[in-house]
Amino acid sequence: MKKLFIFLGKGGVGKTTSSAALAFWLAERGKKVFWFSVDPAHNIGDLLGETELSRPKKVYRELYAQEVDVDRFLEDFLSEVSSRMKSLYRHLKVSGLEDIFDVMKLSPGMEESAILYAIHDRLTAVDADYVVIDTPPTGLTLRILALPTINIKWIEALKRWRLKILDRRSMVAHIKGEDHFGGAPVKKEDDRVLAELDSHLEKMRFLEDVFSRRGFCVKILVLNPDKLSIREGLRIKETLARLKMGIDLVLVNKWGLSGDVLSEIEKAFPDTSMFTLPFIEGKAALSKEELLFLAGQWADKVL
Amino acid sequence: MRLSDFFRSAREFFDGIKEGFKERTVDAVEAELKDMEGAFGLLLFGSVMGMPVFSSFVGISLLPYVEREVIIMLSTSRLLDDFASHWFEIADI
Q1: Strand, coil or helix: what is B50?
Q2: What is the domain-level CATH number for residue A11?
Q3: Which domain holds residue A291?
Q4: Chain B contact for A108, CB < 8 A?
């Protein structure tokens, strides 16, 4: 993978259209492109007039598109954990043990995590020169971008705690024997918890690196020429700065639809390249030619 | 009593004391271990008891491998009047 493109912006500003424009523009130039959506309210399919995009599908030259079903991804993960629990637990009938699983799967933050792990799954599974992600609305996307760094700290703390447990277990096992723990692991190399934590850590480090590498992960802010959209854009810029990330390009979509706010946008994003894209009237979805026309105005700046 | 008998008895006496100390030390380490295992379960699955948990996704993925920790967490919590303060004390919060 040579570059990853992430589109950010308020709901309805034209993120999907802009991501489509870039994906088609790259494919037109002979590049192998994977364009996928992790937005629970997908609309790649609407734009392409395709109903079945649950798997990567060739939609133009070497352009593959997919709408990742995050709910399905979560269900598959939960059913795998559930069957592993049933095969490994000795006392599954202890009251409360099964309830934990039912409560945990409804806990806050599961959706963000599922999207994050689904992104990891796609980025490591596909073979493409360029990857374009159509993201959910602002709040959710910013949390997803922040999660790898926070997760790393949390998982490292869990690992330290786990190592202390194994240390105490080996002290006791030295006197009372390893059977004393009824099959629970004593040595680090036998501990599946440590192995699982290491696997999470590896995934989070990969995503942290991918999201934060300047020049590789290109973040494109899509705005409309209205004050609400500009203010949300500013909040995105501030949050990204806290994550030590930046905006690489600003696209002012649907230009001409309302008053002239260009000077306000230039003041808000003084150090970022900016392009205005005209509003194309009377179209629910743009044609490939229209998408290529739109991308032709800015896409070479992000390559 | 011969001198060798005296020394043997003395050695047995001190070995007994040593074993007693060893037992008590191991018991103390084991009690601490149980607290740590219960707290580990709580760090992962505290939301079951209404406590905020950082990543339920990571917790669920570990669930098949922490049967012992979960049983300790559940049994300790059932025995306590104020389980939250007990766990906070262990975690030094």
Answers
A1: coil
A2: 3.40.50.300
A3: 3-73+106-146+213-233+245-302
A4: yes
